[in-house]
Amino acid sequence: MFDALTDRLSSVFDRLGGKGVLSEKDVDEALREVRVALLEADVALPVVRDFIAKAKEAATGEAVIRSVRPADQVVKITYDGLVEMLGGADEAQGLNLSLNPPTVILMAGLQGSGKTTTAAKLALRLGKDRKRVLLASLDTRRPAAMEQLATLAGLAGVDSLPIVAGQAAPDIARRALQSAKLQGFDVVILDTAGRTTLDEAMMSEAADIARIANPSETLLVADALTGQDAVRTAKAFHERLPLTGLVLTRADGDGRGGAALSMRAVTGLPIKFFGVSEKIDGLEVFDAARVAGRILGQGDVVALVEKATQELDVAKAEAMAKRLAKGQFDLDMMAEQLQQMKRMGGMEGLMGMLPGVQKIKKQIAEANISDKMVDRQAAIISSMTKLERRKPDILAASRKRRIAAGAGVDVAEVNRLLKQHRQMADAFKMMSKGGGRGFAQMAQMLGGPGGLGGGPGGGMDRLKNLGGGKMPMPSEKEIEEMAAKLQSGDGGFKLPGLGGAGLPPGFNPFKK
Predict the structure, then answer these.
(1) What are the pLDDT digits (tens) for 134-180?
(2) What span, in angstroms and rounded, lies between the C-alpha atoms of 430 and 418?
(3) Residue ranges per domain, the chain?
(4) Which of 168, 339, 397, 496 has the fewest CB atoms within 10 Å around its CB?
């Protein structure tokens, strides 16, 4: 999401960065390009006008003129403006759950917006927070809508209201509330019917259900790909329903992001969640500050750590850390790392969360680093025998041809994978020579006290608190140096702001 906008803004700020002193003309030209970039991203015109007016007032003040690095100050002003546009850093995140259960959450939206799938995704999130959730479909018009929600409830591991044929939507809502109270559910999610277009019958039915259920949260689910139509839909629903928040689906497919940037400013409603994939766990809590950071190419390292915390198998991580401490790294371990990467959103998803990746997009494209590459590598390892995965040195030409045929790739790709494995194995052996201290720290981060999920003082807290509460971002010069070393294969650089962590000399993931 926001790819086109991120590219445009990055080019604007790169040009500013080459100037030691900014004139008023420089600032005007930069803001003019920012304005065009926002309009091309399908952001509503009134929102763009307001944004540029505030940014211009701040950018022509003494703070920028006297700043040590004026270009950085303009970036900060743009960042602050984006955060404000998206709802502000202090806006409450997540759901407002009632102190007296069951909490009622009403889902509204047009047909095809992803409302039913989002209801199941939300149920899964709440289930992970140890809430008993009941899903109830009130869609009596769309064929198999109730059966679809029941199937998704099974995938999410939550209960669904039994289907009674011929019941009207208001009666189903009453039955769901009664069942939730009698059976001790913490949350009941009501999935209302939608239409392909707004009509009076749908709106009246949704309003009647809202009066009956008295929901704590009434969430409008809107498709981000519809752009400004999603904003108009939100306004129409808000006039008839007491909406408390918005959920934007298919956000991962929206390269422009205009709906997200306009929605909060136009409707006044907070965006609560982003739908980021079709998978049942593809729902992210919306955070204005972190989204603004992604737009400006600063990544979202906190989200990356959260994903690692959710997907990490602590027992496997500790076992792997112990083996790595002994300098052991076979192809089974490499395959496990590839699977872990896919569970966390794939290569492209992870790259989008890393700061500075926009600066080296060309190198990444040339190196053909993508989810397809990861899938091919996993297929190559799966085509090997157990012995071959444990002892890749025995792979002679005939074995490589058999493996390539089994994976549907060329022998050259098998050789590239083996070379990459050797580089990684050599790097881990070199790290293990220091007595395994680095791997002991890794094991503690992954599963021990104060680790990523280890409560106060853990890895998550340390990441959030770096740089006085803000993740330190590498400067343009540091990013260029990193990219140059990656391309040359020199390696051995340190990642800025992360306690001296880095890549060992000679390790080059971009080199084929």
Answers:
(1) 999 999 888 899 999 999 999 999 999 999 988 999 999 999 999 99
(2) 18
(3) 3-85, 103-286, 305-488
(4) 397
